[in-house]
């Protein structure tokens, strides 16, 4: 899990935030950071889609509460058109529901609105380096969602297919859900904290893929597709 | 349904048996029935010589034998011819000779039937068959003399028409009559006894089922009455007691029948029932008072008084059948009607044999009494009715049980639903209480903090950094409240984990290294959102102090539950709290207040070498 973008090529970032003050704040934080390149800073979903149409950024800093388009829909769009793009969701309180919905849509991280300037840059870098943070309650929900799930494509009725999550991932989520720090989790699993967050990002990806497959499956069942 | 089929099959079998048994065996052509005799009242012990006193009498015949008469016996003299000598045994059959007597053939005594004496009283119900010595039976004319004694205490002497013929043919007739006159009553006695025991046993366990009681007593009465016929010889000193027993059981049977029918038709009345029972007791009592040896009045008046009762029984049974109009309700009146006919028939045989002889000349002289069988039929009908009632009530009970069970199931369902509702209500209630507490918390805490800040900003008493700090603490407060109110599960472990996850970033930003441990046994901690919020508030206050004032480089938190005691400990390596401010600045006072509000204790003290240690302890409800 070596960083692939960090050194030479700057990470291009798109900021989507309808609050001018925060837009300004995020932009400032980005511009001050070496290795980060501000592709565009827009305040509406429509503008964001327009930017995306002209070229894919490496990372999107996305506010969920946009006036025109639902943030979740934008994440889905991004996942469809530039799946390599990381989405970092900006949330006011880090409350489970919104964050979990965003993760299911394909986001791989989230950021609190009042985060300090350096924290913003740090989060972006972490994400580009292949890691993602996870809070205990999110870990618990991911676990509940994916523990018994089987890989997409396994039709029901077949022999019990292996779970989407590996044993190690389940273990990691369990420990995190208990409120342990990443350092502690890594210590217990015999891996570095960096590997822990890398695992988390993989788990988020699986969550998104699984949710998408499930949505397709359900739509097929309902005759929509 | 199967019961009825079985009953039907049994009844059919019984009927077939009866028909077969009653079918009169073919009259043997060689049997002579002697219908004409010369009769002479005489107590002589040998046949009196022929003379003018002998009177021609058609047989069978009945003649009065009043107790006052001088003679108790009547001699009969008959002649018959035997066409030729026969090789087989010849015999004389007397269908009845109630009082006993002698049979003489050609001046030789060929048979003797005991008569009543000083020590023994007899009344023979059975027929008598006497085998004739072969030496006496030759072709030619013969003279048959019979001495017939009256039954002691009876007012009529019944003279049968003797039959003479081959033993084999007479034997068949004898057997049939013996069966009806002796075996059948014996069986009746046995059956009555068994039925009585069985039914009274049921009644003793179900005293409220009076019908069973009456049926049992009726069967007992009839058994006793029949027994007095089966016991043909009784020692003389006990004879009157037997007679008393006969009267009591006969009267008792009718009275009990009346009580049964009244109950069955729902037409009973306590006073009438008592009157009937009193009437029953009256007869035997009267006889005892009057003197054991005479039963004339009782016999004539008291037994006659049973007739209206019997009529009442038939009427009530008919009314019941009319009201109910079911096949089953016809059973008892039908049996009673048959019994009534049998009674009339018997009455005619006893008192008006001539009338009956005109209609059924052959039958009348046989002196078959049918009331026995009529009464048996009535008892069977009563038994059938009780059986059907029993079956009906068992079925009704089963249906009732099923209904009850389903009702109970319904009730249980409703109860469970109610419980669920109540639990739901309680949960809602608890949630509402919690919400109120937290709302007050936001109002008093966050609200007042914002107002204070606003006021200070407005009068220019707050610089930028102070303002940012104040707003940050407001946001932190709000986050805590939201975390504590998270709708899923109020799990302190997860809430604390989220809290630390959030704070880790902030502490890192302030260059404070942070470690934490959680030691809560699985599923032991159930803390409401409000309490959770307070615990996190304490932790937040402590961490804020660490960042703001302590100048620490590391902070360690531990949350543990041991022996139902929650301990939160925050330890930093900073400058340590000044000793003089230990009683508390505003922040510490807040923490202590929260701890007390929860019923816990908070201690703020200096670390052993440096830094500050905040310890919060809370005893958890068992």
Describe the structure.
The complex is a heterodimer of chains A (225) and B (622). Chain A has 225 residues and is α/β, with parallel strands linked by helices. Chain A is 51% helix and 12% strand. The longest helix of chain A has 30 residues, at 193-222. Chain B is built from 14 helices and 19 strands. Chain B has a six-stranded antiparallel β-sheet, with no helix packed on it. A five-stranded mixed β-sheet of chain B has the order 15-16-17-19-18. Chain B has a four-stranded antiparallel β-sheet with strand order 1-13-6-10, with helices on one face. In chain B, helix 7 crosses helix 8 (353-359). The radius of gyration of chain B is 55 Å and the shape is rod-shaped. Chain A binds chain B through residues 93-96, 112, 114-116, 118-119, 133, 135-137, 140, 176-181, 183-184, and chain B through 472, 475, 478-479, 482, 486, 488, 493-494, 496-498, 500-502, 504-505, 509, 514-518.
Give short descriptive properties of this protein.
heterodimer; A: 225 residues; alpha/beta; Rossmann fold; Arc Repressor Mutant, subunit A; 2 domains; five-stranded parallel sheet; 5 strands; disordered N terminus; B: 622 residues; alpha+beta; Jelly Rolls; Rhopdopsin 7-helix transmembrane proteins; Heat Shock Protein 90; 3 domains; six-stranded antiparallel sheet; five-stranded mixed sheet; 17% strand
Strand order of the largest sheet of chain B: 3-2-5-11-7-8
Instruction: Give the name of the CATH superfamily of the largest domain in chain B.
Output: Rhodopsin 7-helix transmembrane proteins
Q: Please state the CA-atom Rg of chain A, rounded to the nearest Å.
A: 18 Å
Major sheet of chain B: size, sense and barrel closure? Answer: 6 strands, antiparallel
Provide the low-confidence segments of chain B as ranges: none
CATH superfamily of the largest domain in chain A, by name, is: Response regulator
CATH class of the largest domain in chain A: Alpha Beta
CATH class of the largest domain in chain B: Mainly Alpha
Number of strands of chain B: 19
């Amino acid at each position: 899990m070596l960083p692939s973008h960090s050194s030479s090529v700057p990470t291009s970032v798109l900021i989507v935030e309808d609050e001018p003050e925060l837009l300004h704040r995020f932009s400032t934080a980005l511009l001050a950071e070496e290795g980060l390149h501000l592709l565009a800073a827009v305040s509406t979903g429509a503008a964001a889609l327009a930017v995306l149409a002209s070229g894919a950024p490496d990372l999107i800093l996305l506010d969920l509460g946009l006036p025109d388009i639902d943030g979740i829909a934008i994440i889905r769009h991004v996942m469809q058109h530039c799946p390599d793009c990381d989405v970092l969701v900006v949330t006011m309180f880090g409350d489970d529901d919104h964050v979990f919905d965003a993760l299911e849509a394909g986001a791989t991280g989230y950021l609190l609105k009042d985060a300090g300037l350096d924290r913003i840059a740090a989060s972006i870098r972490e994400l580009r380096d292949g890691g993602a943070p996870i809070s205990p309650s999110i870990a618990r929900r991911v676990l509940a969602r994916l523990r018994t799930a089987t890989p997409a494509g396994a039709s029901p009725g077949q022999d019990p297919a292996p779970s989407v999550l590996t044993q190690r991932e389940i273990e990691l989520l369990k420990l995190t859900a208990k409120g342990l720090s990443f350092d502690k989790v890594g210590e217990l699993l015999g891996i570095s904290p960096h590997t822990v967050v890398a695992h988390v990002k993989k788990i988020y990806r699986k969550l998104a893929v699984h949710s998408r497959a499930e949505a397709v499956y359900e739509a097929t069942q309902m005759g929509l597709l | 349904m199967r019961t009825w089929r079985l009953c039907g099959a049994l009844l059919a079998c019984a009927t077939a048996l009866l028909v077969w048994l009653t079918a009169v065996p073919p009259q043997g052509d060689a049997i002579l029935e002697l219908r004409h005799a010369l009769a002479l009242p005489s107590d002589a012990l040998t046949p009196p010589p022929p003379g003018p006193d002998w009177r021609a009498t058609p047989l069978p015949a009945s003649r009065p034998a009043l107790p006052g008469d001088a003679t108790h016996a009547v001699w009969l003299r008959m002649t018959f011819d035997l066409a030729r000598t026969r090789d087989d045994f010849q015999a004389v059959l007397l269908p009845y000779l109630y009082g006993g007597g002698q049979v003489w053939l050609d001046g030789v005594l060929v048979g003797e039937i005991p008569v009543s004496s000083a020590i023994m009283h007899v009344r023979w119900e059975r027929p008598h068959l006497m085998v004739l010595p072969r030496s006496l039976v030759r072709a030619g004319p013969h003279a048959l003399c019979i001495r017939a004694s009256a039954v002691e205490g009876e007012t009529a002497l019944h003279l049968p028409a003797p039959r003479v013929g081959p033993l084999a043919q007479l034997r068949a007739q004898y057997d049939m009559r013996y069966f009806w006159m002796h075996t059948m009553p014996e069986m009746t006695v046995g059956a009555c006894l068994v039925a009585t025991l069985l039914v009274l046993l049921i009644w003793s366990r179900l005293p409220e089922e009076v019908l069973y009681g009456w049926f049992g007593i009726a069967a007992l009465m009839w058994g006793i009455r029949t027994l007095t016929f089966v016991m043909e010889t009784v020692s003389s000193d006990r004879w009157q007691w037997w007679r008393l027993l006969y009267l009591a059981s006969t009267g008792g049977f009718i009275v009990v029948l009346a009580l049964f029918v009244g109950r069955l038709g729902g037409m009973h009345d306590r006073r009438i029932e008592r009157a009937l029972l009193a009437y029953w007791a009256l007869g035997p009592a009267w006889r005892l008072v009057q003197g054991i040896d005479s039963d004339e009045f009782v016999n004539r008046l008291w037994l006659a008084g049973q007739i209206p009762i019997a009529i009442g029984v038939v009427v009530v049974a008919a009314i019941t059948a009319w009201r109910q109009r079911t096949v089953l309700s016809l059973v008892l009146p039908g049996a009673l009607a048959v019994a009534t006919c049998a009674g009339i028939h018997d009455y005619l045989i006893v008192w008006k044999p001539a009338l009956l002889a005109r209609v059924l000349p052959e039958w009348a002289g046989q002196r078959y009494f049918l009331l026995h069988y009529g009464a048996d039929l009535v008892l069977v009908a009563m038994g059938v009715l009780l059986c059907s009632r029993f079956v009906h009530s068992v079925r009704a009970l089963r249906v009732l049980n099923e209904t009850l069970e389903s009702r109970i199931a319904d009730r249980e369902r409703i109860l469970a639903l109610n419980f669920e509702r109540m639990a739901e209500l309680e949960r809602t209630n608890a949630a509402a209480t919690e919400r109120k507490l937290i709302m007050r918390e936001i109002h008093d805490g966050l609200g007042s903090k914002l107002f204070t800040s606003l006021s200070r900003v407005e009068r220019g008493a707050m610089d930028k950094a102070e303002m940012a700090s104040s707003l940050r603490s407001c946001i932190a407060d709000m986050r805590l409240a939201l975390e504590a109110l998270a709708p899923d599960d109020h799990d302190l472990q997860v809430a604390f984990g989220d809290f630390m996850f959030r704070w880790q970033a902030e502490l890192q930003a302030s260059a404070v290294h942070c470690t934490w441990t959680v030691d809560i046994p699985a599923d032991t901690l159930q803390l409401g959102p409000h309490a959770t919020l307070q615990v996190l508030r304490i932790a937040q206050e402590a961490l804020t102090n660490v960042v703001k004032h302590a100048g620490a480089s590391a902070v360690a938190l531990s949350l543990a539950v041991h022996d139902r005691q929650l301990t939160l400990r925050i330890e930093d390596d900073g400058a340590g709290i000044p000793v003089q401010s230990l009683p508390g600045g505003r922040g510490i006072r807040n923490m202590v207040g929260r701890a007390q509000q929860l019923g816990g204790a908070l201690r703020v003290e200096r670390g052993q070498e440096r830094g500050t240690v905040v310890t919060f302890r809370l005893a958890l409800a068992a």
